[in-house]
## 1
Amino acid sequence: MEKKESKRISLVDGHAHLEGLNDLTESIQEAKAAGVCGVIAVGMDIESNQKVLKIARENKGYIYPALGYHPWEIKEEEVEKNLSFIRNHVEECIALGEIGLDYKIKVKKELQRKVFGDLLDIALESNKPTIIHCRYSHRRAFEMVKERNITRAVFHWYSGPVNLLDKILSMEYLISATPALVYSPPHQDAIKKAPLERILLETDTPVLYQGRESRPKDVMVTLQEAARLKGLKPSIVAEQTTKNASRYFGIPFQS
């Protein structure tokens, strides 16, 4: 009798900043070899959005573009130019991201909220899911998403209050897990609490984790840590989170 082959694990990296990588081709090859079946490439401003669209066109069926305007990149004199670009190219992307609020930076909170609100309106009008940045602004970001009746929102790298997480989950929104699960107690607490059906896996490439720059292949680190925290086999976590990504982004990723 032949030995039955074990099923190969396939994963989606739900959030990566690919446009700045000098080793993009190599990183994509390594990700494919590691079992990554798709990558969501997120933008931050016009320049990165243009690059994201180009990378996605050159890697059709593997890299999927999300167009964003990150709060770190907001400059009052450039707001309308950035919003116009997203409006004009929204049909070319699968989501709006990375967008949101960041109350640790110097950009005026009022301006951040105005831009975020406009971006949520674009998402609503175009029926696109959203990828939300909410550092030190978890509650306000959630309130704005809820107020606008956004139906698909993923709270990127969620490390906020656990009691707010209950509200996020009650709206059937998702949270994402990163390799920071290795060392971040607040992030660990969120992933422990959230049902597996509400979790996406990601890397936030090329973010540094404990001094090491990440790449899409490192979503396998996220998988191993999420499986450990949930007390589940990695294959189960991989299958469900890939299904979650497919449902959320409307893409038939192969788990």
Note: The longest strand covers residues 95-102.
## 2
Amino acid sequence: MSTTKDTKNRDMLPDGVTQLADTRLHAVVLLVGDRPMPALINMTSTQIKKSKRWMSAMQEIQNGDNLPTFAHCYTLTTVPESNDKGNWMGWSVQPAGPLNEQEHVDAAVAFYKALRAGDLKMRADTSDQHGGE
């Protein structure tokens, strides 16, 4: 399938409406208080470098302790960012140590297994992506 660049240098399908965007999805277990909830974090455009750094950090930690990547916690916050195209909020990812609560471990394992088995499908929704993108 061929694409063309639009006036904003985005890859567009021949219909001129559908945009193809490089999107990195991270399946996570979000802790709301102490309650674990499966979630997806969608990183595109200016956030792709952060996704790559996060993946490298996860791999480094995993190789150091031989635990799967989902056995670790990370603190994600948003930070203001800008470039010549505008201002937006971007991700900041910091290691927060291994999972300690069995309920959190169980939720992470269940989510991982459901994704691996194909019982859940990950899909990026980029309809509300803003700024610098």
Note: Residues 48-65 form the longest helix (18 residues).
## 3
Amino acid sequence: MMIIRRMEKLPEDIYQLATEAREQGFRFLDRLIDDFQSGNNRFDLPGEALFAVFESGKCIGVGGVNVDPLGQSTCTGRVRRVFVSSAVRGQGVGKLLMLEIENWAKVRFTQLQLFTDTPGASAFYGSLGYQKVEETRISHIKRLA
């Protein structure tokens, strides 16, 4: 059974997920850990949240939303650090995680944006209604209102 929880601290097994991400060429979970531990980003400003997906007690996915540091308005959120273990990709875990993030975000934000440079992630976000854009450090936008 899958459970998604809002996290006020990092899941204990985030390091295993970060190792998997690193082996796949992604270092953003290392940045998540570093930023969280340093206090640089703890997903604790108004409207922000970090979520983890657990199955049988094991963390299989993570992702969150911040006030967009690039936005002209505090009504724009930025989807950050979304990663799902390859063992469960294609089983709807990422979609459920993003729905949780969006449901949380729509109380505070009118729009979400993100950046990805991988074709697979781009297709994933597109399937969730994110529009592809050609902006510096923003690849996709979705209106929540």
Note: The first strand starts at residue 2 and ends at 7.
## 4
Amino acid sequence: MNPRLRACRITNRRRGFTLIEASLAVTIVGTAILAMMQLFATCTQHNRAGASMTTALYLANNIQEAVADLPFNDPVGGKSNFGKETGETLATFDDIDDFNGYSSTPPIDSQRTPVPELSTYTQAIIVQAVDPNRLTLAASGTDAVRVTVRILYDGAEVYQTSWVRMRT
């Protein structure tokens, strides 16, 4: 057989991909695409969680700002009553312990105005008297309180923070 003719036949056979090479390439590309789709899904979940946490932190800070300027004890009753007084509403809370047990859906901003766009969130507030020397729970009428704010998203807790406020 002529060597030129033989080389031509070998070259003609190798011009395309074999079925095995094509299926292997499809498998590799398919696996890469599937991995990227899983990565996108995971990134989306983490972005949602981050956005939810940022909103929760914002809502907790709103409560901290709302109570920052309030007096430690009731201007009328003094230390005698811990918690809100009879007939008080959010608009008339006049001391920090009035927020004890308060829960708000939709949440409120630092001016105590409801934020209806965030109606899937709830702010739950607990104010507890603490011993100012050890910061453990104490009877009411002490010179320190711990304010705890829990932020819930669709009923599940997303964020919780607390701080201690001393009588100045």
Note: The first strand starts at residue 103 and ends at 104.
